[in-house]
TrEMBL record:
Transmembrane segments: none annotated. This is DUF1758 domain-containing protein. Its main location: secreted. Belongs to the macin family. One of its GO terms (biological process) is defense response. Residues 1-36 are annotated as: Disordered. Keywords: Disulfide bond, Secreted. It comes from Cylicocyclus nassatus.
């Protein structure tokens, strides 16, 4: 933060008369720098939209002063109090000014704020101070380019300057009457003096490609190079003694347990990083919810059914309301949307939760989870085995994914937002936070990691002499496939052809095994209906 007689002197102000512009010469771009003059010029100011990350509905428009000469970003205490920004901590601040012999000591608070950019929302860690500067000159980017005096409420320093200025859409344009326009992610900024390319005393650098001059493309190039070397080093730098699948199975076996009260198996999300590093994603979930409500409100019946699905999950204990004492714990908010499934007589709507949702430059929940090994049998082998037996019996586990319990330590990473009253508006008073008590559908982890190990164990408890039962038991996408032989009659103690049905219910492992009363018919009652196996 640079001060002279309480009036900021920005590096940008000094550079307004010594700026840079490309001069096209074939495929080359020549950048020139002119000498500085003493003519006053407006500073780099623009209006930005700020919001409280804990309550995105609490927002305001403020004037931002961009100063790459400041090492940190600051806001006024008045703005911090207005939007009730969350305070992280308080610390002493040393402010060094031009020609100052000693730094000034002052106490300040560190806040977390949200800012809206053309690339989405972004959270900043800033410091608060009593005041930033006196009135500064700003050119309004309208048709008249009118000049006005403004009092900045936020000073964007070098820590966020380039992140907010540069983007893929960044551009510079000379305007009439010596003005120039910079297009940034937070809005257009007008400078008083246009960049001059005809001054005699100038320095230049020649660049062969315009794209190379853009630091945003430079980041993409670095990412491509990094990805290239990662592919080149596959199998060389990898630890031969450590595999993700083995680590995932080890974690699964060490954390799974059987809850006798709930009568179901309980697992923990297989994090491959410290869960504290998982981003919160509240603003993204809130924004997605707002867009989802706009779509559902176009058809009130869809909104009513969507709300009924969530209420049904709440009544069945699949989700629960986040307790007040757990609100401030490390967490992650899932985005969700509805998927319609139509059939001849009915219309069903299903809530799908997006574990891959993430902000630009951040990671998603799925990025921090082990996918787990693929334990499913070979599809070709299943199809061949299904043709070897005389009778093939299949049964479906209803909502199998939601029947596996979720450990208490992992529940806060499956939060999502919804409305208390589905007919009301989206506001903090009508907002409610839920979290899953079961493994939600939409995460990166394979269902077989959590369920395939639990189902055979449950069946083994139902049938004590499981070792005598030799038919191949296969579990695929929530379905249990069994090829039956005559010795099953000895093992199960039932007549040949009797069908065993597995349903979700209050039984061992969270599943209920029961027998249908009827026998398999000798003929197909409707030869026109073709029974599908594995969806084929």
């Amino acid at each position: 933060m640079s001060c002279n007689d309480n009036q900021p002197i920005s590096i940008d102000e000094l550079a307004n008369s010594s700026a840079t512009v490309p001069e096209e010469k074939g495929n080359n771009s020549t950048f020139t720098t002119t000498e500085a003059t003493n003519q006053p010029a407006p500073l780099m100011c623009t209006d930005v939209k700020l919001f409280n990350p804990d309550d995105p509905s609490c927002c305001a428009t403020a004037t931002a002063f961009l100063d790459c000469g400041s090492t940190a970003t600051y806001i006024t205490e008045e703005l911090a109090a207005l939007l009730n920004f969350p305070t992280i901590k308080r610390e002493e601040l040393n402010v060094s000014t031009f020609a100052g012999s000693k730094p000034m000591l002052m106490e300040c608070s560190i806040h977390k704020i949200g800012i809206v950019t053309e690339n989405g929302t972004k959270c900043l860690i800033v410091k608060s101070t009593t005041s930033l500067a006196k009135d500064v000159m700003q050119i309004i980017p309208d048709g008249n380019l009118s000049v006005t005096l403004c009092k900045p409420s936020i000073l964007i320093g070098n820590d966020y300057f380039w992140d907010l200025v540069l983007s893929h859409n960044f551009c510079y344009k000379n305007l009439s009457e010596g003005h120039s326009l910079l297009h940034t992610t937070i809005g257009d900024i007008i400078l008083k003096k246009a960049l001059d390319t005809k001054f005699k005393h100038c320095s230049f650098v020649s660049i062969e490609n315009d794209d190379v001059a853009n630091p945003a493309n430079h980041n993409e190039l670095c990412e491509l190079v990094s990805r290239f070397w990662k592919l080149e080093s596959v199998g060389i730098l990898d630890n031969p003694d450590q595999r993700d699948d083995d680590e995932c199975l080890k974690l699964f076996n060490n954390t799974i347990y059987y809850d006798s009260d709930e009568k179901r198996y309980v697992v923990t999300l297989p994090f491959k990083v410290d869960p504290v590093k998982v981003p919160e994603n509240y603003t993204l979930a809130y924004s997605r919810l707002r867009n989802q409500l706009k779509q559902l409100q176009q058809n009130p019946s869809y909104l009513e059914r969507y709300h009924a699905v969530i209420e049904d999950q709440l009544q069945r204990g699949i989700i629960e309301r986040v307790p007040a004492e757990d609100v401030h714990k490390p967490c992650h908010y899932l985005s969700h949307h509805g998927v319609l499934k139509r059939n001849d007589k009915d219309l069903k709507i299903r809530c799908v939760y997006d574990g891959s949702a993430k902000l630009k430059g951040s990671v998603s929940l799925n990025d921090t989870l082990y996918r787990g090994p693929v334990l499913l049998p070979n599809l070709v082998g299943i199809l061949i085995l299904s043709r070897l037996c005389e009778i093939l019996i299949s049964s479906d586990i209803e909502k199998a994914f939601l029947m596996v319990g979720l450990n208490q330590s992992s529940r806060d990473y499956t939060r999502f937002l919804w409305l208390k009253n589905s007919t009301g508006s989206l506001c903090p008073q009508n907002l409610i936070t839920y979290r899953f008590t079961r493994v939600p559908f939409g995460l990166f982890i394979c269902p077989d990691v959590d369920i395939i190990n639990a189902v055979p164990t449950m069946i083994a408890q139902c049938y004590k002499d499981w070792s005598r039962c030799t038919p191949a038991t296969k579990f695929l996408s929530g379905s249990l496939w069994r090829t039956c032989e005559k010795r099953c009659q000895e093992c199960l103690g039932r007549e040949w052809g009797e069908c065993v049905e597995v349903k979700a219910g209050p039984c061992s492992g969270g599943y209920q095994c029961q027998c249908k009363g009827g026998k398999v018919k000798n003929s197909n009652p409707n030869p026109n209906i073709i029974t599908c196996l594995l969806g084929l």
